[in-house]
């Protein structure tokens, strides 16, 4: 049965890489493994359980709802425009700064594609007009789109927090120094690459590329700070800082949404619809894949694959270390999303982290960070395709430039976190 399970897992990830619907593939694979293992109901029970998971569903849905409201009200655009205008005046750190700006925006706007659209349409033209080669300009923005690993709304962080019996901000705080250090190192490596390739200056933009300029956009600075208000509330109210009263992620998102309604005064009917459309998409796109992955990991457990995998990792701590980092990383590179691999790893292996010398938070966080970095090297990632289109370049050119920074960043986090 273990050999059959291994074959099914391989077929599952091949199907995901080939572009088949991830949720369907994970669910069907999980049910088949449960059937072979003699407990078909285990997969469906795990699937259903995630849709009523009090630790995951409210967090993910309210973050998406808030993000949709910020997009509808234009607050996201105001925020990114302010950052872009400041950065364009600091030409000596343009590429380095662009990576980190995108990284931090991606924390507030945890969707990689959404962040790519918000930042890319403003920052890429600014970089090109400053003389940066379009390929490098696009790569700089793309390299920052793994900042979501530090977002309280990213699906993995609430999942890991629940497994560890703690709050989301404690999970994020446990790896924030390592991730921020890796982000800085990755940005430095890309900057050096740009200098070596002579892509950091001297490019003359064409009329088409310059046409994306947003110089005429009128900034409202009050609106610009609204997208980060919930994040500030969560950070200052966290156990590590404690400057303000503690609030949960859903509460922070609801407060941020209410402040947005009061300050911006949009069409309340339409803005409310956008909020609940975001919560619905959160349930569909994120909770749905978590539920399907839970079915898949239940199948791995039932067929005996999980126990065999854990036994192998018990014999070598280094196997667990590299599997957690580069398993999801490689799937992310090939498929453009490492979510399925990271969810499967966290569901099957992470709860047993202590058996091979790690804690749940560290091992689970490494898996999702590896997945995020792998996606940031993938030419088929949705954010890569979108950014490449904005810069009018081939997505593969982005991957060529982000490959070394993402690999080094993964190693940095792996050796400092685990």
TrEMBL record:
The chain crosses the membrane at residues 54-72, 92-124, 136-155, 175-196, 217-237, 243-264. GO terms for cellular component: plasma membrane. It is a multi-pass membrane protein. It is found in: Cell membrane. Pfam families: DcuC. It comes from the Bacteria. One of its GO terms (molecular function) is C4-dicarboxylate transmembrane transporter activity. Keywords: Cell membrane, Membrane, Transmembrane, Transmembrane helix, Transport. PANTHER family: ANAEROBIC C4-DICARBOXYLATE TRANSPORTER DCUC-RELATED. Belongs to the DcuC/DcuD transporter (TC 2.A.61) family. This is DcuC family C4-dicarboxylate transporter.
């Amino acid at each position: 049965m273990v050999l059959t399970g291994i074959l099914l897992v391989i077929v599952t990830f091949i199907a995901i890489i080939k572009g088949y619907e991830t949720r369907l593939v994970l669910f069907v694979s999980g049910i088949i493994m449960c059937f072979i293992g003699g407990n078909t109901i285990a997969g469906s029970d795990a699937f259903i359980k995630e849709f009523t998971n009090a630790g995951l569903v409210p967090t993910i849905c309210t973050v998406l709802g808030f993000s949709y409201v910020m997009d509808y009200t234009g607050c996201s655009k105001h925020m990114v425009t302010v950052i872009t205008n400041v950065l364009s005046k600091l030409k000596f750190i343009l590429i380095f700064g662009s990576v980190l700006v995108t990284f931090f925006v991606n924390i507030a706007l945890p969707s990689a594609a959404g962040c790519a659209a918000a930042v890319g349409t403003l920052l890429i033209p600014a970089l090109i007009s400053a003389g940066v080669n379009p390929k490098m300009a696009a790569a700089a923005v793309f390299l920052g789109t793994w900042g979501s690993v530090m977002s309280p709304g990213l699906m993995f962080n609430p999942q890991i927090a629940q497994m560890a019996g703690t709050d989301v901000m404690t999970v994020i705080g446990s790896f924030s120094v390592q991730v921020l250090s890796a982000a800085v190192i990755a940005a430095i490596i890309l900057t050096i690459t740009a200098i070596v390739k002579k892509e950091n200056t001297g490019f003359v933009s064409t009329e088409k590329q310059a046409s994306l300029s947003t110089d005429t956009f009128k900034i409202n600075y009050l609106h610009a700070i609204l997208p980060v208000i919930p994040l500030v509330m969560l950070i200052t109210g966290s156990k590590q800082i404690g400057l303000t009263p503690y609030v949960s992620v859903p509460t922070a998102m609801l407060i941020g949404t209410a402040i947005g309604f009061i300050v911006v005064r949009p069409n309340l009917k339409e803005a409310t619809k956008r909020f609940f459309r975001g919560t619905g998409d959160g349930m569909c796109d994120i909770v749905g894949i978590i539920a399907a992955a839970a079915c898949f990991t239940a199948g791995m457990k039932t067929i005996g694959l999980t126990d065999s995998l854990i036994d192998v990792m018990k014999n070598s701590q280094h196997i667990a270390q590299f599997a957690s980092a580069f398993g999801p990383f490689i799937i992310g590179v090939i498929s453009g999303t490492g979510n399925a691999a990271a969810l499967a790893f966290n569901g099957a292996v992470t709860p047993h982290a202590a058996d091979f010398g790690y804690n749940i938070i560290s091992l689970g966080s490494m898996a999702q960070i590896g997945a995020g970095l792998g996606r940031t090297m993938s030419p088929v990632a949705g954010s890569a395709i979108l950014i490449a289109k904005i810069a009018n370049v081939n997505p593969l050119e982005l991957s060529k430039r982000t490959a070394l920074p993402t690999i080094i960043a993964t190693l940095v986090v792996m050796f400092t976190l685990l």
